[in-house]
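Q: Hi! First time doing this. I have a protein sequence and I read that you can turn it into a structure. Is that right? Here it is:
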Amino acid sequence: MRILVIEDNRDILANILDYLELKGFTVDCAQDGLSGMHLALTQTYDLIVLDIMLPGMDGYQLCQKLRQEAGNNTPIIMLTARDALDDRLKGLQAGADDYLVKPFALSELVARIQAILRRSSGANKRVLEVADLHYNLETLEVSRAGQLLKLNPIGLKLLAVLMQRSPAVVRRETLEEALWGDDIPDSDSLRSHIHQLRQSIDKPFATSLLHTVHGVGFRLAELKHEQ
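A: Yes, that's right. Below is the predicted 3D structure, encoded as structure tokens:
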């Protein structure tokens, strides 16, 4: 499980990082709101631990932007020294899943993380993720780095197959059968749809996710060395 911790107090941040890593989590961190927002939008996390009082952008704003503007549904636990009911309600209304008041026991933080991950696991099954590319199979919404992408029906079907098999290579024959069954059109049709898909999910971004494996098929994955 990969967790993003956004906390500006270095001592608290160090304690959280050490404890979460001890419990087997992979942890990234940020010490201000803007850096945290960038990581949340460009990387894939199972959960975000978010302090409210942050330089640059506070936790309320960050949470609200992730939910309303970026369509990011990663579970969020808010941390704060404020224990007033209005503050807790404000955090939940901004889109937080849970609220933990400082000072807190690290064991309680882990227990809450585990509880939220258990609850969200059923919902997340219907969301495919490869790097910063997300495809919600319920709403048919596709986004990359928080940016909504427009795909035609064949592009959506093609993307679903590639993401479900990621990072494996999917043979051309498998893709053609998934798209058209036994009524496969001419040999250039798949190539054309792959080209359109690549234009949508890769061209506007710095790194490519859709890779051609010559003579075999295609792979959707984040590769260190592109083929």
